[in-house]
Amino acid sequence: MVGKQDYSQSELFSLGENNGQYKPRLPKNPFFLRIRGYEKVMLLIMGLVLTSIISFSLGVEKGKRIGWVKNNTPGQADYTIQVATFKNKQLALAEVQLLLKEGLTPMAFAKGDYIILCVGKFSNQESAQPLLIQLQRAYAGCRIRRL
Hints:
The protein is of the alpha+beta class. It has 2 domains: 31-66; 79-146, Sporulation related repeat (Alpha-Beta Plaits). It is built from 4 helices and 4 strands; from the N terminus they run H-H-E-H-E-E-H-E. The chain has helices spanning 31-34, 37-66, 89-101, 125-135, and strands spanning 79-86, 106-111, 114-122, 143-146. A 4-stranded antiparallel beta sheet has the order 2-3-1-4. A hairpin with a 2-residue loop joins strand 2 and strand 3 (114-122). 14% of the residues are buried.
């Protein structure tokens, strides 16, 4: 026989508290709630500074590869005489100074890991030929090339 119970039995799934919908529990102390406001600002600033430094470094490396001398008038001077190629920047600068003392107009520009040293700007190959013959006495491997 079933008697009356003195206490009320709780149901396993009660509808009174959450109206029958599942509510996920949030963790008590998530990481971002434990960080103070000024610490969040400092972390954001450090991230921006780090990103700026990395992008600046990549830009500098790309700038090194672009070159030392830019062509100002691309249609008028299409040819030059390539005198030498250097891997060391100081040697290339010393050779530029030597060519300046001789009264020539040297140009140095970077191409990959190398520095190419050229002399003069010419409109065609025939106008560069007399200087090429003169430079071949001092620089055995010089040649006429396009800018």
